[in-house]
Every structure is written in C-alpha cells, then in structure tokens.
Amino acid sequence: MDKYYLAVDIGASSGRHILASMAGGKMQLEEIYRFPNGMDNKDGTLCWDANRLFTEIKNGLKKCKELGKIPVSMGIDTWGVDYVLLDKDDRILGDTVGYRDDRTTGMDKKVYETISQDDLYARTGIQKQIFNTIYQLMAVKETHPEYLKQAESILMIPDYFHFLLTGVKKMEYTNATTGQLINPVTNDWDYELMDMLGYPSRIFKPVSMPGTVVGNFTKAIQEEVGFDCKVVLPATHDTGSAVLAVPTNNDNAIYISSGTWSLMGIERKEADCSMESMKANFTNEGGYDHRFRYLKNIMGLWMIQSVKKEFEKDLSFAEICERAAKETIPSIVDCNDDSFLAPKNMIQAVQDFCRKTDQQVPGTIAEIAAVIYNSLAKCYGDTVKEIESITGNTYDTIYVVGGGANAGYLNELTAKYTQKKVSAGPTEATAIGNITVQMLRDGVFASLPEARTCIGESFDIKRYNEKGKQF
Ligand code: LFR
C-alpha cells in the first residue's frame, strides 16, 4: 500500500492540496485540490477570509477520502507575518488583516520611539518590512488596544488552521521568525522586546520546531472529513518550505524562491545581524535544522499577477512570458519601490515610474511584462553582487524554485543579468519542502541532504548557461 503525506500549501493567490508518496526511490506528487486566495477589501481594510480558507482546507481533506488516499500525516504552510488574536473563547478579535494593508504606515516610527532600528536589527536579524508582525501589532496597539487586553493567544495563520484541525495551539518557529520578535541566537521569543513595546508576552506560546507533532484531528473534524490524521509541523513559512526543496547540497548556492515574491539568498548556519547586512536590507529568517535563510525580499511575480488581472484575466502566464520575450523596450523600474506594494493599478504604477524617470513608457501587456521581467532580473543581478560582497564568496549557479521557475524568459534574463548558470525547478518546491519535513520525521530520509538529493532526482529541472541558453 502506498503511504501518502499531504501538504496544504496556501499562497497569497491560491492554495493547493498535494499528496506525495515514494515510488522507486523517487518522490511523486499528485495535486488533488486547488482553490483561489487573495486579500478582500473589507470596508477599506485588506483582509484574508480565514473562514473560507478553512472550509477549503477541509474540502481538500474530503477529496483525500473520496480518492481513498488517506495520508499518514499532513501539514499546512502559508505566507509569513500575518496572525490572529484569539479571545478566551478562541474567537478571532477584529479582522484577519493582510500584510498589504496600509494600517502599518508610520508604525515603524512608533516602534523606533522605544527601540532604534539598528538595535532592533541587531536583536532580531530581520529586515525591515513595514508589514512585519512587530509593526502590525503596533497598529493594533494604537487603534484597538482593547484587542491586546482581551487576547488570550496569538497564532500565526498556519498555526491557527492547525489549531482548528487538532484543538492544539502551537507556534511554529520558521513562521514566527518572520514577525521580528524572535532572537536568532536563542531561537526563542524576545520577551524583553515584547515588554518594552507593551505587547502582552503571555499570549505567545512557546516556539515549536518543524517536525513537531501537533496532534490528531478532533472528533468533529474526523466526522466531517471522514478520517483521522496526524498533523505534523512543516516549516509553516512557505519560503522556509520552498528553500528546503532547493535541489543541491552545495553550501555555496544562491536560490530564488520565485512566486508572489522573489526571495533571493543563501543558507547560513548563523545569523548575520551586522549593520552592513542591515543596510543592504538582508534578513535572517529561521529555517529547518537551524539553517538561516539569509535573503532579500524582491517584489516578484506579484507585479505580473496584478497586471494580468487588470489587463486580461484569461491570458496564461506562459503566454504573457512569451509575448514579453519578443519586446525590446529598455525601461527598468525599481521593483522594490513602495509604489508597487499595493497599488490601486499596477499598470499605471509601472507607467508612472517610467514617466517619472524619463524612460520609455510601456503600453501593451507585452511591453509592461517585459519591463517587469527585466527589472526583476536586474534586481537579481544587484542582489548577487551584494551577497558576494557581504560573504566574500563567489557563486556559480542560481537555483530558482517555485512557480516562477516556469517563466522561461525570466530564467534567461536571470542568467544574463547575474552572469551565472541558472537551475530552474522544482516548481512545487513549497509543497515538496512541506512534505520533506513530514518524511524526515517518518524516517523516509535520514537527513536533509539525503532528501535534497532525492528531490533533485525526482523532478524536472531545467538548466541555463550564463548566456541564458538552455542546455
Ligand atoms: C512569500 C512570503 C515571504 C514573506 C511574504 C509576506 O509568500 O512568505 O517570504 O516576506 O510572503 O509574508
């Protein structure tokens, strides 16, 4: 009988249930359920619909039952930084506000009234992103201090879904680190920092590492979905899971986890909380087995996703990519400019940037996409130089994992702008990484290097030379 493991991988634009099993020494995947996601505008606030997402999680579980493929374990990963505050009856206090909402505007200044930006970085190693949990909690403290008083617990989004499935509250380490409230030396909550900022430290559960068993489904969930299952914590931060699936054991590898965001960086055994690192805006997110993800957030395919929605919803990403490849427009935008975080209209935001900087203004979807792809690749090139200068190492290959690894034109540009070889795939890296931790826990692999070798042999991986030619 095949043994199945289930990854529920929820990204900012869609979620999926993926069953994995081993056959002939290789990992096999089967996508059994998919659903849309996105932030809804609720009276002017960008929110996630946690109830609907949980219904979708259960729908996918019912699909396992229907197929007769009952997993031995399952785990959920999502984006980072967002959370729920629960009252004494475990009801969500306020809305489940999404990270692109602008409630955090000015909250950096508020936080720095208590602790300077330099000290905060030295203490947490996390890059400044205005949406980090630390700034979101300041927004709550400013506008709804009563929520912090009433709260009995805080859970990151995947922790919350694991709680709804099992009745057990755990806070998983990789996602927790994205909030900027964890000390990268002790790998534990910085309770002193919470006290300084006036956040109630009592509501934070102890940190649990990936691989920890959360518990079994509650009776009610068992009845609803038709089976029982063990919930095992994966790296619940999607980027943490994706980086686990980088198909190499070469420590000198640069990766890009390419999806809604492009997360570009390396793995390190220790966090680098130096001022040089802070100035370059690199982060040290906690990873499996205490490997830090030393990386930079680059705006990523969110820009293409938004343009597609605004122009022609039905056009496929592959088609957009092919059309863009035929363009020669030379304009470049700074992908990390704030104007691209949550613009009312992405097309206009790109055009405005070009106009403002005296460059050719793109008009068609192909031209706009070409500007975005070239700008992303240019940003990758700059980031490689920063990594090489900070670490003193040189790297010869960029490993692109995640859905964006399908964008052939972007892979070519990545090779050209970075002057490095590019390895592209696996595209389902996040789900694979999620499953890898479950399999490590179950003894399928003895170590992460063994798992990574298997991942490299199991999935389709494309290779490009430094000139962008596939070989
Ligand atoms: C990618 C990601 C990034 C994080 C951003 C917001 O999906 O998790 O790593 O910076 O979303 O949480």
TrEMBL record:
Where does the record place the Carbohydrate kinase FGGY N-terminal domain?
Answer: 4-244
Q: Which Gene3D superfamilies match?
A: 3.30.420.40
Swiss-Prot/TrEMBL GO biological process terms: glycerol metabolic process; rhamnose catabolic process
**Occurrences of domain Carbohydrate kinase FGGY C-terminal (ranges):** 255-439
The kind of enzyme this is, by top-level EC class, is transferase
According to its UniProt record, the EC number is 2.7.1.5
Print the keywords alphabetically.
ATP-binding, Disulfide bond, Kinase, Nucleotide-binding, Rhamnose metabolism, Transferase
Q: Which GO terms describe its cellular component?
A: cytosol
Q: Which SUPFAM superfamilies match?
A: Actin-like ATPase domain (SSF53067)
- Any one Gene Ontology molecular-function term assigned to this protein's record: glycerol kinase activity
Question: Which protein family is it in?
Answer: Belongs to the FGGY kinase family.
Q: Name it.
A: Rhamnulokinase
